[in-house]
Amino acid sequence: MTDTHSQDSSSTQTPKRTPFYQSHLDSEGKLVDFSGWELPIHYGSQIEEHDAVRTDAGMFDVSHMVVTDIKGADTKAWLQKLLANDVNKLTTAGKALYSGMLNEQGGVIDDLIVYLMNAEETEYRIVSNAATRDKDLAQFNKVAEGFDIAITERPELAMLAVQGPNAIEKLAQAKPNWADTLAGLKPFVGADLTDIEGTDWFVARTGYTGEDGVEVIMHADDAPAFFEQLKANGIKPAGLGARDTLRMEAGMNLYGHDMDETISPYECNMGWTLALKDDRAFVGRDALVSKRKQAKEDNTAMKQVGLLLTTRGVLREGMTVTINQGTDNEQTGIITSGTFSPSLKNSIAIARVPASLSEDDHVQVDLRGKGKFVDVRVLKLPFVRNGKQQFDS
Known about the structure:
By secondary structure, the chain is α+β, with helices and mostly antiparallel strands. It has helices spanning 21-26, 46-55, 75-82, 133-143, 167-174, 179-184, 223-232, 240-249, 285-298, and strands at 16-17, 30-34, 37-42, 58-61, 66-71, 96-102, 108-116, 123-128, 150-153, 157-163, 190-192, 202-204, 213-219, 236-237, 302-309, 320-323, 331-341, 346-354, 363-366, 373-375, 377-379, 384-385, 388-389. It has a seven-stranded antiparallel beta sheet with strand order 20-19-16-17-18-15-21. Strands 11-12-13-10-4-14 form a six-stranded mixed beta sheet. A five-stranded antiparallel beta sheet has the order 6-7-8-5-9.
C-alpha cells in the first residue's frame, strides 16, 4: 500500500494533526506538512531510522491514510465494479487485497488495500491514500449508485505501521496477549483484536517497506499509550524520509509520482493486480484493454524498471532516461522517483521506459542537464527485499 507526497487543497489550510502528534514531539520528531498533515520527516537521523527498519524494528505514523468501512448486501458486487482486482480472492475474514481503482480511461485514481471483515461477505474495509481522499470518496459514492451499501469513513481511528525483521517479535513483547494472533498471521491477512484488546483494534501483516511487519489500527484515544509501549520495547520511531527510501528500495509505487490518473497499471508495474480472466465489468476495463492493445500495435507501450547509478550523483524525479543515445534506435523514458539508497550506498530510481527496452540497450541519464550522459544499470524491481540485495553486483 502506498501514499503520496502530492499536496491537495487541504495543504493550504492549517495542517491536520494525527493522534500521535504529541508522541512525535516527545520523541523529538521534525514535523513537516505532508498532504495537509503535520507528520515527522525524521527524529534526528533518517539513515538510522532506515537502518532500524532494515535490520531491527521501526514504526511509522500512517494515521493520515483514509480508513473507510463499507457494509450492506451489495458490498461485494460494488467492489467488483469499483476495483480492477477481484475481491472473489478474499475467501476468509481478515484477508487483504491490493488493487488499483481506475477511471473510465483506465488510469489509476488510487491504489488501495481492501479487507474482508466478515464471513458473510457483507462488510469490507478500504485503506486508501491521504492526498487522494476527496476523489476516492467521490468515486466510491459515484459507483455506489444503485447498490445497497453504507459507506462510512473512520477518521476517529489511528494507524501505526510496525516494520522490520524483528517487528513481530518486539510487538509480541510489548503485547504478550497478541502473540498467538501475530504468530498465526500470514502476509496480507488481518485479524480483529476486539476480543483481546478492545473495540476498534485491528492488526494486519501488511506494510510499505519490503520488510516483515504489521499495520495496527486503533481508536485515536489508545494511540499515544500504544506508541510509548512500543518505544519502550525497542521499536524505533521512523519518519517520512526513511519511509520513502525504504519503499523505493522495495520498488513500491508512490501515488502522484510513479502513477496517477494518466498512467495505466501496465505502465507502473501493477499489471499483476488486474483480474481480466473473466468478463467482470469493472470501471475502466474496456479502455484499459483497448489502449493496451493499441500501444502494442504502435510500439508505444511503456513499462516500469529500476535504475542503479554506480558512480557519484543522485537520480531524481523528472530526469530523462535516454536509451541508445545518438543512434537510429534512440528512445527516451522518465524517472518517476529517485533517491540515494542507504542500503546499497548508491543512487537508485524507479523509471517508466519503452516496453521494448532490452538488456542489450545502452541506457544513460543526463544528471545535470548539460549533455553529460552517465551510464545507469537497468534492474528488475525490487532493489532490496527482506534486508537483502535482489540483484547480482
